[in-house]
């Protein structure tokens, strides 16, 4: 009898060991994303695609999402920093817009109060109009903008965002005073699209991922893109090749909670990097015309510090700070 029991025990142990080896080794449990902008906006899209990618890469068991927009993303940042300390399963989507928001609003909580994990990609802004717009080309728009600046309504993200800075910089190249730029700030996402389609905004600017579906189905026509060179999949000239030395782009990445141990930070970083190699992530890189630019850890933190200097100088230059 004892031999039979020993045999059964060995078989059970082998079965358990095999099952353990076959199970995915999740680095993270339920990842709680904070998207500091409206549903459908750039922060939100990044969070949801990364969430799918984490699951596909077996780097997380499940994901949840929370949206809190306002003040260039700094309201969401504050809530995240205060509610997630020491939690390795919390991720905050960040970007250049948030850095600009911090420089403008000078909030008590900044990105120094959370943990840099990884920059993921850069997304360049398109300048687009409704299909029935009289502006058929960028030259049509520029001619009208120079002649009667305030009559041309531009719409984009929050005041002082990359969208706003980009249009202000373009105005500067055209010798149009910043106070003559009629820019309508929105929470991005569905809000800006609704206003543009409704006619309250004549020209819309934002990342291709936010506007791509409307461009593909013909509701918007792209006049130009603010990339250094043409972007595959987007049939539009760059501002540079049209004669205007302006680049309008927004990088995005993720930060973790404050107070992570070095081991926790490495686990979170490894999980995010693994997700960036997944099929769902790579498919979205192509679909959304994102330019991959992965940078992790302290190198990412240093990059963000440099972005504070760069964006503050730009805000001053275009008269927004």
TrEMBL record:
Q: Which SUPFAM superfamilies does UniProt cross-reference here?
A: Periplasmic binding protein-like II
Annotated signal peptide: 1-27
CDD domains reported in the protein's UniProt record:
PBP2_Bug_TTT (cd07012)
What keyword terms does UniProt attach to this protein?
Answer: Signal
Q: Which Pfam families match?
A: TctC
Lineage top rank: taxon: Bacteria
Return the Gene3D superfamilies for the record.
Bordetella uptake gene, domain 1, Periplasmic binding protein-like II
Q: Which InterPro entries match?
A: BUG, Bug_dom1
Family statement: Belongs to the UPF0065 (bug) family.
Supply the name of the protein.
C4-dicarboxylate ABC transporter substrate-binding protein
* Organism expressing this protein natively: Pseudomonas umsongensis
| Upper classification of the organism | Bacteria, Pseudomonadati, Pseudomonadota, Gammaproteobacteria, Pseudomonadales
